[in-house]
Each structure stands twice: as structure tokens, then as C-alpha cells.
Write a structure and sequence with these properties.
- It is a single chain.
- The chain contains three helices and five strands; from the N terminus they run αβββαββα.
- By secondary structure, the chain is α+β, with helices and mostly antiparallel strands.
- The chain has a single domain, classed as HIT family, subunit A (2-Layer Sandwich), CATH 3.30.428.
- β1 and β2 form a beta hairpin.
- The longest helix has 22 residues.
- It is globular, with a radius of gyration of 17 Å.
Amino acid sequence: MCIFCKIIKGEIPSKKLYEDDDVLAILDISQATKGHTLIMPKKHYENLLEIPSDELRRVMIVAQMVAKKINEVYKPAGINLLNNCGEVAGQSVMHFHTHIIPRYTSSDLKLGFENHMDQYDLDEIQKELKL
């Protein structure tokens, strides 16, 4: 059983911020920044690609609710909403979850993207991926 399933079942203690029949919001034990919170469905889905859209919708509604509370209480300069899908993307617990990471300064957390626009043909990518 995964660590988040054990937390959901109450076998491992956590700092709960919100809980309903379907979703749990807990403080991340690592606290990348003050208020760093994890939002997860109570049912086990490995990642973003497996969670049904209705469950994902519930998680995102709770994420917005918690983000609003963090914003009200701590007044961060911004908030990152982050999901890691797969080990190479940084997913360390294989139970779908999303991070709410309050940002107080631009340097309190290292997130960034490199510009590769000259390496990819956007028209080709659009043709291949268009739904």
C-alpha cells in the first residue's frame, strides 16, 4: 500500500487542512514554502493519466479552495499549482496528487523552463496533438 493510502486510512499521521468523502488536503511534510499543501483523491490512481475526469475535477475544486485560503491567510506574492506525472517528472509517490506551493519571492523555489523554440516545429506538433 502506498504512503498516501496509509495517510488516507489514518495509519500514518498527517496535518489535515481539508477532508471530504473523496478528497484529502494535507500539509506537505517537506514544506518547500510555508503552506505547501498536497491535494489528493482518496481513491488510489497512480497519476494524472489514470485519474478519471470527475475525480480530477473534485481534486481541482479543493485545490482552488485551499489556494484561496492560503492566499487569504499568508498573502503570498503568487502560488504554483504543480503535478508531477511519472518518476522522470519528479513524481516520488505513485498516488495522484497536486501541490499547492505559495510563493513569497521569486527565489524561494527553483522552477523554470528552458527555451527550446528553435528546436521544435510548432505547426507539426499542433498537427500531431490536436484533439
